[in-house]
Specification:
Layout lengths: L2 E5 L2 E4 L4 E8 L8 E6 L6 E6 L5 E3 L7 E6 L4 E6 L8 E7 L11 E6 L1
Parallel strand pairs: 2-10
Antiparallel strand pairs: 1-3, 3-8, 4-5, 4-9, 5-6, 7-8, 9-10
């Protein structure tokens, strides 16, 4: 079965940076597109960033220019580098596998940005 383990979250001040990691197992990682979501209390889940198996990337307008998604297929890991963080970025961040249509979820990692 698919397992997803997110890590790297924490508490930072506005303008700070964090790098999130997600280790995937139970899949042929290199052939799938990977995504990062986030969800804040009382709000809908938001698709933050996507990286295709080809390496092509896409970002939500709210994070474009500040966040960078990348992957290391040898480590079955997808990353999210977050710079210039804002309080609006506060949420639990989750990774997932695009082609599996969110059938599996990890525990997520909390990101808190304060002023």
């Amino acid at each position: 079965q698919v397992q997803l383990v997110e890590s790297g979250g924490g508490s930072v001040l506005t303008g700070g940076s964090l790098r999130l990691s997600c280790v995937a197992s139970g899949i042929r990682f290199n052939i799938y597109d990977m995504v990062w979501y986030r969800q804040a209390p009382g709000k809908q889940r938001e698709l933050v960033a996507t990286i295709a198996s080809s390496g092509s990337t896409d970002y939500a307008d709210s994070v474009k220019g500040r966040f960078t998604i990348s992957r290391d297929n040898a480590k079955n890991t997808v990353y999210l580098q977050m710079n210039s963080l804002k309080p609006e970025d506060t949420a639990v961040y989750y990774c997932n596998v695009l082609q599996l249509r969110d059938a599996y979820w990890g525990q997520g990692t909390q990101v808190t940005v304060s002023s």
